[in-house]
């Protein structure tokens, strides 16, 4: 059998090599690690080079390759002495494989250089496997980190599994530029990027807004989490809720890989939360063109917070087709989560005759203490789906279409603590707010490349649309009207009856509709062999929003505005390792309506245009990289003037510096670290009262130190750790109330082995090792407490 395989390979190989030798190409690949050299080679030779990233791990520096070579000759020179060889496919792709015994050539699992293993739609992983070297940059599509004038991070399934991440917040704890809090009165995850809120409603799924579950996003079916840093109205369009002034997040779903996926995971988290996850993937048909990926998960039990109980269920199905010119994919999913007696956020009552806080923020309760009421609960249920298609009109032009929708059913009885005493005395509020939400979303466009003399062009055209309808009702009890509690004693009160009802809580009526549409066009011009890249773009946005009173059904708002947002970006690559960039871009939000207290009440204002300027540098040494950026974002804000008129005259100006490092600088040592410094200054406030103050909920600094280390002499064993340090934050615009800086340390270990020929991975992670009591965030003007010490263990077996 081996000799037959060898003879067949010898018969085909000369024909393939002859085709590849048809012309020579000019190569200038510097001396560097093999994996980085292969990336440069594939780009310069304009070939598709496929290989498993593990084949080049630990390789040394290869000599420089400069001159005119055929593809085959050049590749042979790079691989000399590496223990690798290659095969050529019918479509001209080159596949790297280990040199077989006795000269046997065997086909193996592959990855495309510039793409991830088994995924032609994803940029390749960076050295170390925790981050990717590229991401989807909205209308610009998948881009390499060195080629775009923007800052971004892209986290892989390797990091998700290593961190035992169960939600998006667990993944983004590793990002030094992102921090997390809860939503107003509920358990939705809110992210703070460059000092501005990003609601979970505004997180994209495979590039499409409005599809993912609304409040908490699980990770069992997630392949990548991509974080775009900065204003993004041009690249992504206006999000449904209009948040994300400082950044955007895109979640990429899992797909079937060339190697079948059959894994089962059992997990446990303190105090008694137990769960399981089944991940099944298979490709079939000619050339593995069809793929199916199924993920099922169930988890239930008491969390590390006393008496807090959660239950979670997930089922997702991913389908895809990979043709020569046509690529199709579809995702459908169902997610349901229930939290009983969940520890909610804390509000401060700083004014009024009963308040005795006097500028003192209440001290933090014990880390596992629960001040929720026993009758409080929240249930979130989402059903969603989307479809995507790409068709290559020619080797240089691709048309694409994505469309999808989501139905959300949300219920909950929420108990809120309004603390008015330094000793923790609080009024207890109650809210029952059933919500039904339906969303439809679509994007279509065209991407292509062409040359005009010595100048290259990457052209993008896109049209986006999102339509959303909310049906909502409210049943509430004013804080303190029926119950008083204490933050530290956790006094239970009887569930109070409703004192106010708005709408039919059994069959809510429509209270809001959103209709956002946009058209975008861009051209990235390449000069000097694409060492200088100039991106110019425009997006014409139409923002529409209507609102109705839940109580009376009367229309309360009708907003319709259109605006054009430009984008300018420049990339200069003076060396193969260094990329310098600058951009000037904007974010958009629906403009405000003057409040009732204003003399011009009811007046609608144009959309907020938050303007960003940024400069930065990115370094790529093949196995170790980093970036440094300096940014300024100016967000307009409305203010009621002394003359009684409401105007958009105020501003929050965030100026900051971001630093990140990532990769595998030494064999077996992986780093994912960074720091952010942000000065968020208020300007033009009412009467100048708060001018110069730091904005609410924005820490002056935050940094992460993350590392993963393969223990020498213990095959399969690795240790990892993450240190998070976050500066103090102000709770109010007057800067009278604040929370102190905090530090959290997580430590973990992983063991990979085989049991009866089956891969087995054992994971353990201890979060908040020191069991620190800390207020994690003052974002939104309320307090979110950090989670207590939590032990997570899991076992994953492939079968």
Automatic annotation (TrEMBL):
Entry's transmembrane regions: none
Cross-referenced SUPFAM superfamilies: Porins
Motif (TonB C-terminal box): 782-799
Signal sequence, start to end: 1-24
One annotated GO biological process: siderophore transport
Entry GO MF terms: siderophore uptake transmembrane transporter activity; signaling receptor activity
Keyword annotations of the record: Cell outer membrane, Ion transport, Iron, Iron transport, Membrane, Receptor, Signal, TonB box, Transmembrane, Transmembrane beta strand, Transport
Stretches assigned to the Secretin/TonB short N-terminal domain: 47-99
Superkingdom to which the source organism belongs: Bacteria
Intracellular or extracellular location(s): Cell outer membrane
The keyword Nuclease appears for this protein: no
Protein family (similarity comment): Belongs to the TonB-dependent receptor family.
PANTHER family noted in UniProt: FCUA PROTEIN, FERRICHROME IRON RECEPTOR-RELATED
Name of the protein: TonB-dependent receptor
